[in-house]
């Protein structure tokens, strides 16, 4: 019955969408309303298709004899009293499905987890929430234990799945926390932080749809591989409007893909760089040592002395405007000084009286001077209009500029900033953003560009119609006499054609936000947030002036050298003490035996840290084998082949040191054709070879770890990297240790 309703809803939305797409014309308001209707119906069609699998997954039988079905979306009985036939999991009344326990049943008598394949029910688990009959062996803090364990034991697919059927109470509390303020979720590996972050996004969009659909929600994840890994989750929760980005993607128009030494990236993430960039901008506001001569055609030579330039510079700086906007002040000052020179010469009274020019004459001289290419060239030299890219590229290319801008850095640090290659790195992105703030944007140019584009499009539309008119007359002459035949120009004029074109260009909130550097999001969610540098935090805070944020991570897993040592350090510069901490304590991913191995490493990182408790015990014990150094690749290939043969429908991750990924990756790819290697390995392959940085946040049924000692020695945060690597397996872990 529910699937029939779903089909009906999808068809209705598709019909309405088609109707809206056919309509044209009308007032601006009508067009804009039509536009949002098109977007709404298109979203609905997409959402109804996305919730097909596992549409209804739960049932609550209440003490008062009620029976409620819980599912991915709400479906109502539109024929009757609008009763809910299926309750959206995010609705307040559905909450008991996740929270009711035998000790605190919340009016629930029985909770049922339904399993379906396509549109058929294939099984169910019931829990009778009666303290007298509760099974004594059940894990008392787990909700829907049988379904949870079935979900955890299932083979991995290379794509993260949603957990909507088995959200646990400690996770539910975080998912449904209030929207305002900064909420930090700290939790060990596999405690469901990523899952919780995604479900929270879906919950917030459902609960605060109006507010968040206009401002948008941004979810930041550590790298492109990770974003691909999680990309299916929100669509299956019927939410498509969240913008997923890595920190490296947050400067529109810049593709920050170049890699650089970890030490350089770490330095670029430090707060001192704010001062370096401010000094680099000041350094571009130049005062010459000697007077500059400006040779104007058909006029005498003008002289711009250093004092005038300095006075104009100081005036422009005092305006408090960003560099590019302060240029207007600078121009006025210089042009005034030069115009006075000209006026003095040409207006001088030969009889020694007052200057013969009046104010209007001098104004005219200023206007002329402002347009003189020679004057503009001098202004550009003294106070150039700069893009963030230009400022940084010039700075990093020139040791003298670096020295002038970074007096507080050591020589060695300055050498780190000097770059030989062009191209941007992820650590450059917060610097570009900082530079954009310091420089400001003179958007008059952009506006003029938009107007030019519009004029061009109109011209184009008219051109299209011209062609249509031309061909029509021939068609008409050829095919009919007199002609009752309607041509394209009878149906549509240039304005309408342009309007159609513009409609196609109108964008969703997420698309507009993605293209706008200064977009202020309604809510920002950061996953693996421990990796962010202080400068990356500055950038994110700019994107979220309302400070409505969910920050998810584990300080014990920090791999980046400039990463976050403590949440207080990262956040207090922006929100003082006004942030809340929630902790997740149960690991759903890693079985106890594997967690025990990881716990030893965690104790070495910081003896005060405690690993999460594993829900699952038993299974295959992890193994750790020494192999001769020169046999590592061969042994790894053998072990991988054995694991791959045993996998069934699961996935194997082979985690190797960054310095050996080419060598070991090539050996594995040669022996196992299904092995995926490279910068963005295909995660759905049965065998995936990765570095720790790439494996961050991912999981596999089985993990083989090669050369853990090199992983530790490759970075100052090597122990944390090893901890991450050891906690990626849901079932089996094998370690090969060269000796
Ligand atoms: N309530 C749950 N029901 C079913 N599966 C769950 C639940 N909570 C977590 N999981 C599963 O546990 C695994 C780990 O979750 P997730 O990746 O969100 O953990 P994490 O805390 O982000 O880990 P890491 O710190 O390693 O990135 C995932 O496969 C997730 O689906």
UniProtKB/TrEMBL annotation:
Specify the protein name: Helicase
Print the keywords alphabetically.
ATP-binding, Helicase, Hydrolase, Nucleotide-binding
- Top-level division of the source organism's lineage: Bacteria
InterPro entries, sorted: DNA_helicase_UvrD/REP, P-loop_NTPase, UvrD-like_ATP-bd, UvrD-like_helicase_C
Question: Which segments constitute the UvrD-like helicase ATP-binding domain?
Answer: 166-591
PROSITE patterns the record matches: UVRD_HELICASE_ATP_BIND (PS51198)
Q: Name one GO cellular component term.
A: cytosol
Query: Binding positions for ATP?
Result: 187-194
Annotated signal peptide = none
A GO molecular function annotation here is: 3'-5' DNA helicase activity
Give the record's GO biological process terms. recombinational repair
